[in-house]
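Here is the promised in-class demo. Please do not try to memorize the tokens; focus on the logic of going from shape to residues.
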């Protein structure tokens, strides 16, 4: 596990952008799910930039942004999260409540300065 102070010093080179299409009647369940994942991404060395939930406009689109130092580090996170009890619990919560209708994942390179 990487400490928060180490994360702030590490350059994040790849940002994962996840666009979710969600059930708007289950926004509170999705928000709970989002709050589960923020510390989990950080547990595996990533930097979470937050979830962005519907406010004005489309009521069924949510966004998540989080970064890793490299795509290889992201792949380690994906592999290890698939075996982590807390991550599995979060996956199960989403599967049980079915608030995510679909999602798209893209990788981007941030320009921070």
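The designed amino acids, position by position:
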């Amino acid at each position: 596990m990487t400490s928060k102070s180490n994360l702030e010093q590490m350059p994040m080179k790849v940002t994962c952008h996840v666009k979710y299409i969600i059930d708007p009647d289950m926004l509170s369940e999705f928000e709970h799910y989002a709050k589960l994942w923020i510390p989990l991404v950080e547990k595996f060395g990533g930097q979470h930039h937050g979830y962005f939930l519907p406010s004005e406009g489309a009521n069924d689109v949510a966004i998540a942004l989080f970064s890793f130092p490299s795509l290889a580090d992201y792949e380690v996170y994906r592999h290890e999260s698939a075996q982590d009890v807390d991550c599995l619990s979060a996956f199960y919560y989403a599967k049980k409540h079915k608030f995510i209708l679909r999602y798209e994942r893209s990788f981007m390179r941030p320009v921070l300065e």
